[in-house]
Amino acid sequence: MEYMSGNFSEDNKYSQQITVQCYESDSAFRLKADAFMNYAQEIAYRAATHLGFGYDELQKREAAWVLSRLHLIVDNAPLWRDRVTLTTWHKGLSGPFFLRDFELSDATGNIAVRCTSSWITINTATRRMLRSTELTDIVPDSTMVKTDAIEEPCPKVIMPRGAAPEKAGEHRVSYSDIDIVGHTNNVKYVEWAIDCIDYRQVSEKGIREVYVNFNHETHPGETVSLYRHRADDGSWYVAEMVGETCAACVRIVV
Question: Which residues touch 253 (CB under 8 Å, ≥6 apart)?
Fold first, then answer.
């Protein structure tokens, strides 16, 4: 991805310009949903760093940000070589989650992609989830923005009741899957889920929405079994299992 230097607005929103690259685009030249997620995780780190609670600051406390839930809506997918502006802001605490929203707009200012995300923090030594109140001293209320890209936080995502999902494949977690926190990068789960759907359907229609819950870490050498189910409304559910444990569950609307 190609970033220009970012900046904060007076209302604490952080923006950067990006040019959509060929390797981030599908055969219809549209920006892929997983490519947007790569944008989002990078700008989230950058924005948090500027506000004093980024990766380096949390490392001093043996802590790290971990994405727990995400919902994105594609209103009008940008195309290869388009210059777009990605904006992010954090909305403070909601229960156990820190909320962060994103908007991707085109050159005329129209919103192309909207996203809301829910984050937790973990202790990097024990891998245990930290209480959200343990970090409120470095995430000041003055940096919050109370506007919504998507009004409701991403809900819980599980297989529909009564579903009989079919096995769609397996993936062995390998070097290319692992991120800076030492576990499978969140974007990989969405890539695996998208690849469970019929290629023609995805390539012709494109992806309109993605909901994903990240439930458990996966690590190098583990085998993730992928189970898919097409719901009555036409959306796809993919459960990503390590043994009996659901590592992630994804709902995709095409």
Answer: 207, 208, 209, 210, 234, 235, 236
Q: Cα–Cα distance between 227 and 242 in angstroms, integer? A: 11
Tell me how many degrees the CA angle 143-184-219 measures, rounded to the nearest 5. 130
How confident is the model over 197-222, as pLDDT tens digits? Answer: 999 999 999 999 999 999 999 999 99
Q: What is the pTM of this model?
A: 0.93
More confident residue, 236 or 135: 236
pLDDT in tens, 79-111: 999 999 999 999 999 988 999 999 999 999 999
d(CA 86, CA 218) in angstroms, rounded, equals: 29
Q: Which long-range contacts (CB under 8 A, 24 or more apart) does 125-128 make?
A: 125/62, 127/217
CA distance readout (Å), 217 to 55, 67, 82, 185: 18, 11, 35, 9
The alpha-carbon radius of gyration of the chain (Å, integer) is: 18
Q: Which amino acid is at 64?
A: A
